[in-house]
Amino acid sequence: MSASDTSKYRPETRLVQGGILRSQFGETSEALFLTQGYVYDNSAQAEARFKGEDHGYQYSRFANPTVTMFEQRIAEFEGAEAARATATGMAAVTLAMMGQVKAGDHVVASKAIFGSCLYVVEDYLPRYGVTSTIVDGFDLDAWRKAMRPNTKACFLESPTNPTLEVLDIAEIAKIAHSVGAKLVVDNVFSTPLWQSPLQLGADCVVYSTTKHIDGQGRCLGGVILGSEKFINENIHNYIRQTGPSMSPFNAWVMLKGLETLAVRVRAQTDTAGKVAEALSKHPKVKKLIYPGRPDHPQAAIVKKQMRGGSTMVAFEVANGKKGAFAFQDALKIVRISNNLGDAKSLITHPATTTHYRLKPEQRADLGISDGLVRLSCGLEHVDDLIDDVTNALKAV
């Protein structure tokens, strides 16, 4: 087999052609290697594999041809030197942080992150002697003041979940690097199509591939991307020894998802922008946030670091929780779900679902009001979605 080198091509071509490993049968579609282990030609070859002198496969817990194809393809698309796939998006976040630190180290994270990510930083890492500081991610001085000589890793997501606010990745990367720390960015809400954190100075990018990369609500997965040095020193051996690996079948599904990622995300982003425009002056919408609009709270940063908006729209419905529930329950096309990035339009009420574990004052501090909903636009006709949303608002 031979891996394709598509780095010279444009993103859409890399999403279709990148990382292909064809067997002796010359298959068109990527082969699905459902195998746990591998056989060796002789004892000497087995010994060489375990010593790292022969680079063939040993065990699918840490390397598999189908998973390799997915890792190589998304690395080429992201502009990363290397990638490692994981079983879920949260496995990717946990591994990206845990792989860098040891007892006595310190990490800094933005407070505007997904609840499970906050748990990793605030509750999980300290169990192993790693202290943490949570900062207002939009306040660069807060990042500066939080840095310590033992700060090893920083974490943020941008755009944020669920309020779609945008952090200045380039400036935060500079602050992290000033003390020798590495910056990890969760790039799920922008997708690799619209934002490239590594090019902005980040050291590591993580995705829940469950979202836009699969894009059709089928499989769980995650991926960690960075330089060869970062992956080899912090990630690869951790996966090898602890086993949070992506299954070959899920990797095959993700490969199929990557082929249509650019087409889907462009269409969904276009739809989201039009839905946002339709809602922007609606009397029952108290507040609307959409990256790319001039009224976005960080419009200048969006323009500087993003190539497009988002497939997501966040807006606050009048009459708080009662109004949000009435609105969601009146929808006909859009379905209530905590997932996102699907071909089907989905909506969630963060205060009672994804962020319900936060205290009311924490949610208020993050802008997660009782009336806030997060809409993930799918591939339905935009006019049908606008009709569905505006008709449902009549129930508020």
Short summary of the structure?
The chain is α/β, with parallel strands linked by helices and 396 residues long. The chain is 39% helix and 15% strand. Helix 3 runs parallel beside helix 10.
- Gyration radius, to the nearest Å? 21 Å
Total count of helical runs of at least 4 residues: 14
CATH architecture of the largest domain: 3-Layer(aba) Sandwich
Count of β-strands: 12
Give the helix proportion (percent range): 25-40%
Shape: globular
CATH C-level category of the largest domain? Alpha Beta
Largest sheet, if any?
7 strands, mixed
Percentage of β-strand residues: 5-15%
Query: What are the low-pLDDT stretches, counting only 5+ consecutive residues below 50?
Result: none
Spatial strand arrangement across the major sheet: 1-7-6-5-4-2-3
What is the N-to-C succession of helices and strands? HHHEHEHEHEHEHEEHHEHEHEEHEH
- CA distance, first residue to last residue: 59 Å
CATH superfamily annotation of the largest domain? Type I PLP-dependent aspartate aminotransferase-like (Major domain)
Oligomer: single chain
Can you walk through the features of this model?
Strand 2 (106-110), helix 5 (115-124) and strand 3 form a beta-alpha-beta unit. Helix 1 packs antiparallel against helix 10 (248-279), helix 3 packs parallel to helix 10 (248-279) and helix 4 (89-98) packs parallel to helix 5 (115-124). This protein has 2 domains: 11-257, Type I PLP-dependent aspartate aminotransferase-like (Major domain) (Aspartate Aminotransferase, domain 2, 3-Layer(aba) Sandwich); 264-395, Aspartate Aminotransferase, domain 1 (Alpha-Beta Complex), CATH 3.90.1150. It is 39% helix and 15% strand. The protein has a 7-stranded mixed β-sheet, sandwiched between helices. Strands 8-9-12-11-10 form a 5-stranded mixed β-sheet. The chain is globular, with a radius of gyration of 21 Å. With 396 residues, the protein is α/β, with parallel strands linked by helices. The mean pLDDT is 96.
